[in-house]
Specification:
Layout lengths: L4 E4 L2 E4 L10 H5 L2 E3 L2 E5 L5 E4 L1 H14 L8 H15 L4 E10 L11 E9 L7 H6 L1 E5 L20 H13 L4 E5 L5 E4 L3 E6 L2 E4 L9 H12 L3 E4 L4 H5 L3 E6 L3 E8 L2 E2 L7 H14 L10 E3 L1
Helix pairs in contact: 2-3
Bound molecules: pyridoxal-5'-phosphate (PLP).
């Protein structure tokens, strides 16, 4: 994982020179926000960033939620995301804007702090593996509960909140699974460590409403795509056992894209292979992201 340049505090610097001090506040307590965005190589050879505006808007919303002001206008960070792809000469890549705080004091409460911003980009293949995208993955319902909506700010991609995700993911992997599914504080399915969850039962899709989950942009795209394909989608809570008896289960996320889940807690989902509806939606999603459907053109920002 490396690229030529990183955009850091207003300028492009060499990858190895984008350094911070060990006393950086965010490094100690996790108050910072970030985004994850993908740029795809389209069918015509051009590159396009998928839903750039929405990702940057969410970055600013995340910062607003934790009461941190990003010292650049939104359109500048949008432009930086396009430039970072160009500067590094990427056709396809992942883009990671990061906002963190720096202070000359290290108490929890610091009155004076500097907000620093970096935009990093690198080539990142399928997050849960090519094999996972094609044949599906195994998920484990975690013993770690997702944040209560009054404890973690679940609508924000806040750095420190990912300790919960990492604990869940490491537990899942150490038990021989690929990914963790977390329940909410009332015991209903919340989300995976960095993905939203969908189930399909009798041709109807169901996904967790915007309660304890991060409002995924891929989730929103999949709801729209599924509706446009004529499927019914309900945003409704569902329980752990509904996962077990679902016909299909899949995850959505910028990193994970649309990944089929074929096993939950050792129980086969459907026939143990990626479901038909999942496959159709996955295919359509990749076609849309690669500019093959005119009606979704406004989701793409060409480089
Ligand atoms: C980023 C993220 C998602 C997926 O959101 P996208 O906008 O689709 O990338 C889902 N859950 C969590 C916890 C996340 O951090």
């Amino acid at each position: 994982m490396k690229a030529e340049k990183i955009w850091f505090d207003g300028k492009f610097v060499n990858w190895d020179e984008a350094q911070i001090h060990v006393c950086t506040h965010t490094l100690h307590y996790g108050l910072g926000v970030f985004e994850g965005i993908r740029c795809y190589e389209c069918h015509d050879g051009r590159s396009a960033i998928f839903r750039l505006r929405e990702h940057i808007e969410r970055l600013y919303n995340s910062a607003h939620i934790v009461d941190v002001e990003i010292p650049y206008p939104q359109n500048e960070i949008e432009k930086v995301c396009k430039d970072i792809v160009k500067v590094n000469g990427f056709k396809e890549c992942y883009i990671r804007p990061l906002v963190f705080i720096d202070s000359n004091q290290l108490g929890l409460y610091v009155k004076e702090f500097k907000v620093r911003v970096a935009v990093i980009s690198w080539v990142w293949g399928a997050y849960l593996g090519e094999e996972g995208l094609r044949n599906g993955i195994k998920a484990k319902v975690s013993s770690f509960i997702r944040h209560h909506v009054d404890a973690g700010m679940t609508k924000a991609k806040v750095n420190g909140q990912y300790v919960n995700s990492i604990l869940a993911k490491r537990e899942a992997i150490s038990c021989g699974y690929d990914e963790a599914i977390m329940l909410d504080t009332e015991g209903y399915v919340s989300e995976a460590s960095g993905e939203n969850v969908f189930i399909v039962k009798h041709n109807v899709l169901k996904t967790t409403p915007l309660t304890s989950i991060l409002p995924g942009i891929t989730r929103e795209c999949v709801i729209k795509i599924a509706n446009d394909m004529g499927f019914k989608v309900k945003e409704e809570r569902f329980s752990r056992d509904e996962l077990y008896i679902a016909d299909e289960v899949f995850f959505t996320g910028t990193a994970a894209e649309v990944t089929p889940v074929v096993n939950v807690d050792g129980r086969r989902i459907g026939n143990g292979k990626p479901g038909e509806i999942t496959k159709k939606i996955q295919q359509k999603f990749f076609e849309v992201a690669r500019g093959m459907h005119k009606e979704y053109e406004d989701w793409l920002t060409y480089i």
